[in-house]
Amino acid sequence: MKKLILILWMFFAAPNVWAVDQLVESPGLYPAAPQIIGGFDATPGAWPWMTAIVYADESDLFMAQFCGGALIAANWVLTAGHCVDGLVAADIQVAVGAHDLETFSGPRIQVKNIVRHPNYVNFKANDLALLELSVPSGQQPVILFSGASRQGIEVSLISRMTTLTGWGLADTPTTWYYPSILQQVDLPVVADANCNDTFGETLLSSQLCAGYPIAKDACTGDSGDPMMLMIDGQWTHVGIVSYGADCRQSEGIYGVYTRSSAFVDFIRQNVPAAQFTETASRALPWLMLLLR
């Protein structure tokens, strides 16, 4: 039953390209038996905003999880638009701050409202959605990349090493399985041409390409998972897992992600409490007041 709907959709609707439900890792930290695709167990509590998106009518949290997301305000979760295809708010609950889906003792919060981008076109354009929660979560929200920062991080993010987290399909040297423990993997942002050539599509400016030619990738079950980068000294949401190749056939390859910075206005309009990176100039007046 685990992710059955997504698997059937990918099999019948997209034989060569699948709507990603993938995971992440950090280079140079591989365990003896790699998980996900080149990933490893995340440290408990390291990613408090990480959200398991689950079917409300399935009591077993592990079996219920089908997508991921990130808490961006006390009562709002950011995820992929295709994660909510065919669903209404009553169908979905979230588990914020989960680590092990089999032992999680926190609340499953009912989704109150789904706000998908008005120009969403399956997983190939504007692939993001906001989930309003019926009650606020007590977990720490993640800050979002606005495209500006005190460090002057370039909007393209090319060559930046990002980190993904999720519970998507994982690998060992001998088998594939769905992990109950949150996984992570580190993936570099690469030139769009790598994804254009892989998928026969021209990426939009609101998308980015990340990954390696082989061995590391997100996978089925990771759609909506957050792509993060350390910016201005804090972990920052820079992308959303959108789609990629069949990870079991490709053994890990480049994937396509929705850029957080391309949807600042949409997010701010619906989630005023969401926090974004800022340039040093905006903080300067406050600093000058302190120096008087």
In short:
This protein has helices spanning 4-13, 61-64, 192-199, 247-250, 264-270, 280-291; strands at 18-19, 40-41, 50-55, 65-73, 76-79, 92-96, 109-116, 129-133, 143-144, 161-166, 170-171, 176-177, 183-190, 207-210, 226-231, 234-244, 255-259.
3D architecture notes:
The structure is a single chain. The protein is an alpha+beta fold. It has a domain at 4-21 and 44-139: Beta Barrel (Thrombin, subunit H). It has helices at 4-13, 61-64, 192-199, 247-250, 264-270, 280-291; strands at 18-19, 40-41, 50-55, 65-73, 76-79, 92-96, 109-116, 129-133, 143-144, 161-166, 170-171, 176-177, 183-190, 207-210, 226-231, 234-244, 255-259. The strands form three sheets. It has a six-stranded antiparallel beta barrel. A six-stranded antiparallel beta barrel has the order 3-4-5-8-7-6. Strands 11-12 form a two-stranded antiparallel sheet.
